[in-house]
Batch of 2 targets.
Target 1
Amino acid sequence: MSHRMVSDLMTTPVVKANRDTGFKELAKLLAECDITAVPVVDDEERVVGVVSEADLLRKEAAQLDPAGLLPVLHPGPSARAKAEATTAEGLMNSPAVTARPQWTAVEAAQVMERHHVKRLPVVDEADRLIGVISRADLLRVFLRGDSAIREEISGEILLRSFGITPGTITVRVVDGRVSLKGTVERKSLIPVVVRLCQGVDGVVGVSAELRHRIDDTSAASEADAPRRAGLAT
């Protein structure tokens, strides 16, 4: 079973900044390129940090209200330093959370979720910037056609992995929702098949009406196993 890789989905070439890129230039990059964050690289193109919209907004939030109606914020030393910074060096979050080109879309999505970020710079073995993967890029996985999903489930999962021939299980895919109907040899295969189908790129959900010929999950079948083994010898 194959998955779309970060290298297949990432955006190139990359909009980037240097350590000495100024505040206004950073704001211009985000606005003109319609992005929410920009990676910061050193002279050897290695990613050293990321500047986001939130980092720039700290300066606006730190300004005094001319009318004197809003409460005065008292940020901590770190937040105050960022609010006073004028270049990417002082504004960026470092070290940057990055992705590798050989990651699957699932791996990249999990890292984004864990670190609460919307974009990941993609780096090579030397940590040099080669692309950017965003939430929008990852969502392209779900644009995969129903026929391609059905073919992968029928051919890669059912036939090649389990030897289940076409027609034994009917696979139907509508808008990424997979329905399985048929019979498998052993009951223990049912959750495995469902789980593998859920992991196919582009699948939104899986429902299964699967019967089994042998219940290999019950206590009775486990107790009978030594007796059957003895008879077999």
Note: The first helix runs from residue 6 to 9.
Target 2
Amino acid sequence: MTTFTDPAFEEFAGKTALVTGAARGVGKETVRLLHSRGARVVAVDQRQEVVELPEEFAGVRPLIGDVTREETARRAVREAVAAFGGLDVLVNNAGRTLNKPITQTTAEDWDTVMAVNARGSFLFAREAFGAMKERGGGAIVSTGSYVCTVALPEGAAYSASKGALAQLTKVLAVEGGPLGIRANIVAAGVIETDFLDTFRSDSREYLASFADAQPLGRVARPEEIAEVLCFLVSPRAGFVTGAVVAADGGFTAM
């Protein structure tokens, strides 16, 4: 008998997955896991690096696009259907963060963060719903944050966007249930990635410095969050929907 740690474990064989924010970090690790477990993957990112993914993961279909634009979501779903015959899995991973006091947060800051984290996820989920309905069901998971359940200073826009994403997930679960579509969100803790590289050159080192704030004494590795995302869209989580699943090293347990 194979297990999920075995190379022969292909629980996504015959399934098609769409991953946003796929070029780096958690998104890239999610592409790797889905691909290694048999999925055919459409990988979306606005970074040019996404076109390099097929060099590592044969057969992955890269697509460069801005997730806040309706046409990007439509193109991505059309690509999945045209190339692989349908869509079974959506991983809404693209995200943007911001750390500013409320008095220094501009309307543009607010709109930019909300556009990626909430609007983008809504657009992709909406387009995926149609394709999954035709397929007879599917699974959607989003990369959220523990700030969708707790408040941290200097995070008005980011926290609000992840809170919106958590509520969107619950609506997707309720509307999707009769269609065989599940939806969940991972409330991730601090992850050592280059997520902050748009405004910090030391993103990984800075994020790793929060280790002592977690009961586990360290921050997450990208592959650990990817593993939770993949579990939630797998048959092993067949009765899990509408859930906010914490993967935060115990931070919200304190």
Note: The CA atoms of residues 2 and 41 lie 23 Å apart.
